[in-house]
């Protein structure tokens, strides 16, 4: 009986210390889940993509959590912004991607971006808007199954689902395609 009492007191003390060490409810909830792995939290996150000595992309974020789940080495980034660089002119930014959140797999370098996703290509002033997009590093393509709006100057195209090369040079919309041209603002004022 005395051994059980000591064990119970020890468990209560350990539990109390665990909750005192937590700085918020989310952290304490994560500690209660035994399948969670250790996480590293960062503010002002920065990650650089380099291949064969050339800068390919830079990814910045307001904050990041490394090891966000136990199945892989994912990095969850809040308010990510990705700058894509020209392969020949290493410092020339050819496109940007912004979203509310992104998950990057550190093994494959694949990314899922969600929430007000916006991609801008500076080569031909193409803009893509959607709620969720994936980037497959191996295939070098963006793709989505969500509603997408593409702006190319005054030309607007919408549809459901798309895939594209990472430089947005070839964009394929899967279904419900609608195309129109925005009226010239000068004509509207007359």
Outline the structure in words.
The chain is of the alpha+beta class. It has 3 helices and 11 strands; from the N terminus they run H-H-E-E-E-E-E-E-E-E-E-E-E-H. It has helices at 2-21, 25-32, 185-188, and strands at 40-51, 54-66, 74-78, 81-85, 93-98, 101-105, 111-121, 126-136, 141-152, 155-165, 171-181. The protein has a 6-stranded antiparallel barrel. It is globular.
TL;DR of this structure?
The chain is of the alpha+beta class. It has helices at about 1-20, 25-30, 185-190, and strands at about 40-50, 55-65, 75-80, 80-85, 95-100, 100-105, 110-120, 125-135, 140-150, 155-165, 170-180.
Shape: globular
Largest sheet: 6 strands, antiparallel, barrel
Q: Please state how the strands of the largest beta sheet are arranged side by side.
A: 2-3-6-7-5-4
Provide the succession of SSEs: HHEEEEEEEEEEEH
Q: What distance separates the N and C termini?
A: 92 Å
What kind of assembly state do the chains in view correspond to? Answer: single chain
What's the number of extended β-strand segments? 11
Proportion in helices: 10-25%
Q: What structural class is derived from the secondary structure elements?
A: alpha+beta
- Integer-rounded radius of gyration: 23 Å
Mean of the pLDDT scores?
A: 78
Helix count, per DSSP? 3
Strand content: over 45%
Taking pLDDT < 50 over at least 5 consecutive residues as the criterion, the unreliable ranges are 3-38
Question: Top keywords for this entry?
Answer:
190 residues; alpha+beta; 3 helices; 11 strands; globular; disordered N terminus
């Amino acid at each position: 009986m005395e051994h059980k009492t000591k064990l119970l007191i020890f468990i209560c003390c350990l539990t109390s210390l665990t909750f005192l060490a937590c700085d918020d409810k989310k952290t304490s909830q994560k500690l209660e889940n035994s399948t969670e792995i250790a996480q590293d939290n960062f503010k002002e996150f920065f990650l650089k993509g380099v291949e064969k000595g050339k800068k390919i992309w830079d990814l910045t974020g307001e904050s990041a959590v490394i090891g966000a789940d136990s199945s892989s080495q994912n990095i969850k980034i809040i308010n990510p912004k990705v700058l894509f660089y020209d392969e020949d002119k290493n410092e020339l930014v050819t496109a940007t991607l912004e979203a509310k959140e992104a998950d990057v797999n550190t093994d494959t370098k694949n990314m899922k971006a969600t929430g007000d996703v916006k991609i801008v290509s500076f080569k031909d002033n193409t803009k893509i808007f959607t709620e969720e997009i994936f980037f497959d590093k191996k295939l070098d393509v963006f793709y989505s199954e969500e509603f997408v709006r593409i702006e190319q100057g005054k030309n607007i195209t919408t549809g459901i689902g798309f895939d594209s090369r990472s430089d947005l040079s070839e964009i394929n919309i899967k279904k419900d395609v609608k195309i129109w041209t925005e009226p010239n603002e000068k004509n509207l004022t007359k």
